UniProtKB/TrEMBL annotation:
This is ABC-type quaternary amine transporter. It is found in: Cell inner membrane. It comes from the Bacteria. GO terms for cellular component: plasma membrane. Its main location: membrane. Residues 22-257 form the ABC transporter domain. Belongs to the ABC transporter superfamily. Nitrate/nitrite/cyanate uptake transporter (NitT) (TC 3.A.1.16) family. It is a peripheral membrane protein.
Length: 271
């Protein structure tokens, strides 16, 4: 991705937009089970996502990560507590302020790449030419200009997720929410996508909250990590990652990286 090209395009004020902070306050979620009993999936979750930061939430499978992200997105109601964007309580439907990328491929198979990216834009008051500008800008951001007229089935898994990320970004979300977006990819593609995502973040500085069970992925991408405990899911620890902002893939082998990894793994093993 070429930064000059990106600056030239800038019709979208993503790069210089002051994204609101997102916070989760005293949030719990339980589901009714047999009889009048309840299963508590999340208990008293408190966390803060700071503007322009890349934050990861790590935790083992089944500890409630997706449930939490779905609540933040507005897809599931919390049992108690609230989600605030820029200090304002958000309730109900997913808003354009919270763009979501899921683990599975969620592109519309009958739409082209460009039409998929444009999908949310038709609901905004925006002229056709503005929509076209935005779509070509984000095709460029994710490096898929040549595939504008391809259909999802013609793309690899990594390319599909790049389209899904472009589609979420096109709505200029205050916070980009991602639920294990690379979970379905092979190891090599996954590393390429991590590199791609970090480059994208350092160009746009969009505020990101990503969920992963992959500790290495979390450390490589983040400024801040929240470690979630299991049954019930609680925030066990908050770790700030003091690695340089510009990171190459082989930073994963650096002693300071390995030390953070050991610390996070120990926290998760205590479960
Ligand atoms: N609609 C539901 N009804 C009852 N239990 C649920 C429901 N959704 C999720 N759960 C339970 O919540 C727990 C956490 O699930 P999930 O959030 O998907 O975890 P993760 O994403 O960390 O793997 C699981 O034990 C799951 O069975
Ligand atoms: Mg999940």
């Amino acid at each position: 991705m070429n930064s000059r090209t990106l600056q030239e395009f800038t019709p979208v004020k993503l790069a210089d937009r002051q994204a609101p902070k997102l916070s989760v306050e005293n949030l719990s979620k339980s589901y009714p089970v047999r009889g009048d009993r309840h299963l508590t999936v999340l208990e008293n979750i408190n966390l803060e996502i700071f503007p322009r930061e890349f934050t990861c939430l790590v935790g083992a499978s089944g500890c409630g990560k997706s449930t939490l992200l779905n609540i933040i997105a507005g897809l599931t109601p919390p049992s108690t507590g609230k989600v605030l964007v820029d200090g304002r309580s958000v309730t109900g439907k997913p808003g354009s302020d919270r763009g979501m990328v899921f683990q599975g491929y969620t592109l519309y198979p009958w739409l082209t790449v460009a039409q998929n990216i444009a999908f949310g834009l038709q609901f905004q008051h925006m002229s056709k030419s503005e929509q076209r500008d935005k779509v070509s800008y984000f095709l460029n951001v994710v490096g898929l200009e040549k595939f504008a007229n391809s259909y999802p089935k013609q793309l690899s898994g990594g390319m599909k997720q790049r389209v899904a990320i472009a589609r979420a970004l096109a709505n200029e979300p205050a916070v980009l929410l991602m639920d294990e977006p690379f979970g379905a990819l092979d190891a090599q593609t996954k590393e390429q996508m991590q590199e791609f995502l970090l480059e994208l973040w350092s160009k746009t500085h969009v505020t990101v909250l990503m969920i992963t069970h992959d500790v290495e992925e979390a450390i490589y991408l983040s400024q801040r990590i929240y470690v979630l405990s299991c049954r019930p899911g609680r925030v066990k620890s908050e770790i700030t990652i003091d690695l340089p902002e510009h990171r190459e893939l082989d930073i994963k082998l650096a002693p300071e990286f390995v030390a953070i990894k050991r610390q996070v793994l120990q926290l998760m093993r205590q479960e």
